[in-house]
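In the current project phase, our protein records have gained a structure token line. A sample record follows, to show the layout:
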Amino acid sequence: AAGVGMEQAPATAPGATLRDLLVAGDLANEADRLCAKLNVDTVAGFKRLGSKDLQSAGFRPAQVKRLLAFQESMEESPQELLPDLLMLAASVTDSKNQRRTENVKAILNKFNIGPVEEIDAVREENHVLRTFLFELSGQTAKYPQLFARYENDDYELVATGDGVERLDEREELIKLLEKDNVDVATERNSDLTMFDVFQRWIR
């Protein structure tokens, strides 16, 4: 837990933005500078910053100390508050859905994402939930689909199967650019990454 005098990440609703968290922690001015000077506006991007990054953006030593303390408190979020990660899939479906489901499982495994609870959309006892999740995602009979399930049985769409494949392709592109010593900071901050989307379940 954060010690006396350390900034502590406040409890916020799921889906809160980085600015929401910083404002709640009395760091609104710092949030504006993070976005303006470092092009960082996501929790994942903030967690990757070190003291040198913050100093280069013009933060004073006291501000750097507060931001790093706040960053540390975010890392200490209790695991038990994490929502479940569900994968809606189908044991009987067309070959395209089957191939995509197997590929997505491999991608999640590659990034050490889990545990994943698989829901078989074909089973009769899952038909009501399947219909609800289809309405939530706006996609019918397209598998897999990934959702967060919270303690109060609220659900949130995390990603579709083809969305996961696109994220993986982007990660592979960034790796190739890094091999060629290309600065990928702008590329990483310009769109979502696997870490941004699945950070709650990365083991």
User: Anything to note?
Assistant: The chain has a mean pLDDT of 82.
